[in-house]
C-alpha cells in the first residue's frame, strides 16, 4: 500500500498544491497512491 503524505506548515503552502505535485510524481513513476495522510 502506498500512502501520500501531506504536511502544511506555513500559510504559503496548500494541501491541494502538495497533492497535485505528489500525484504528478507518482504518475511519472507509475506508483498508485492508495490513501492520503494530511497534517495541517
TrEMBL record:
Pfam (any one): Resolvase
One record GO biological process: DNA integration
Active-site residues annotated for this sequence: 9 (o-(5'-phospho-dna)-serine intermediate)
One example GO MF annotation: DNA strand exchange activity
Xref: InterPro entries: Recombinase_CS, Resolv_N, Resolvase-like_N_sf
Superkingdom of the organism of origin: Bacteria
Key words of the record: DNA integration, DNA recombination, DNA-binding
Domain Resolvase/invertase-type recombinase catalytic: 1-40
Alphabetical list of PROSITE patterns matching this protein: RECOMBINASES_1 (PS00397), RECOMBINASES_3 (PS51736)
Protein name, entry field: Resolvase/invertase-type recombinase catalytic domain-containing protein
Source species of the chain: Tannerella sp. oral taxon BU063 isolate Cell 8/11
Amino acid at each position: 500500500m502506498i500512502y501520500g503524505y501531506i504536511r502544511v506548515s506555513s500559510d504559503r503552502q496548500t494541501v491541494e498544491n502538495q497533492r497535485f505535485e505528489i500525484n504528478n510524481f507518482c504518475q511519472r513513476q507509475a506508483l498508485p497512491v492508495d490513501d492520503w495522510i494530511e497534517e495541517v
